[in-house]
């Protein structure tokens, strides 16, 4: 194997390695490994577990900032939760995220997300659904945002 990898151009090898890193059991591309790759956060396992896993290691916020990770809770529709990376804050209730596998097998680099919580604390969100070219109808509970810097 080392001989084979040594013959691959470094860029191609990196691309192949990225493919293996992002692959999952059934649906291929997964949100958590992708968010880890984009942010460098050393968190593992299902996306919904990132919130507790990051406690004390990284700051949590109820307001979005670019580079933060939005963590959606586990639900019947999202048994493992979901994570996405904030790319831009467009207003107090609208952000743009980069994410993998919201639409199965796809990386979205500019998906709108809106806060639909009663008190504007980002505890309930709706996410853009590209196939319908509109905001999805489902409201997803969210933990909040992990800031990829250590607290203090």
TrEMBL record:
<dbReference type="InterPro" id="IPR038765">
    <property type="entry name" value="Papain-like_cys_pep_sf"/>
</dbReference>
<feature type="signal peptide">
    <location>
        <begin position="1"/>
        <end position="26"/>
    </location>
</feature>
<protein>
    <submittedName>
        <fullName>CHAP domain-containing protein</fullName>
    </submittedName>
</protein>
<keyword id="KW-0732">Signal</keyword>
<dbReference type="Pfam" id="PF05257">
    <property type="entry name" value="CHAP"/>
</dbReference>
<feature type="domain" description="Peptidase C51">
    <location>
        <begin position="1"/>
        <end position="126"/>
    </location>
</feature>
<dbReference type="InterPro" id="IPR007921">
    <property type="entry name" value="CHAP_dom"/>
</dbReference>
């Amino acid at each position: 194997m080392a001989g084979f990898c040594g013959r691959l151009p470094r860029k191609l090898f990196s691309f192949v390695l990225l493919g293996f890193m992002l692959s999952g059991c059934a649906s291929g591309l997964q949100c958590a490994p992708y968010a880890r790759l984009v942010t460098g956060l050393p968190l593992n396992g299902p996306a919904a577990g990132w919130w507790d896993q990051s406690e004390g290691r990284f700051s949590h916020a109820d307001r979005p900032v670019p580079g933060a990770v939005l963590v959606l809770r586990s639900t019947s529709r999202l048994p493992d939760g979901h994570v996405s990376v904030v790319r831009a804050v467009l207003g107090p209730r609208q952000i743009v995220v980069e994410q993998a596998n919201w639409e199965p097998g796809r990386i979205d680099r500019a998906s709108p997300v809106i806060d639909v919580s009663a008190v504007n604390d980002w505890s309930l969100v709706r996410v853009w659904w590209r196939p319908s070219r509109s905001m999805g109808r489902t409201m997803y509970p969210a933990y909040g945002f992990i800031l990829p810097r250590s607290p203090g």
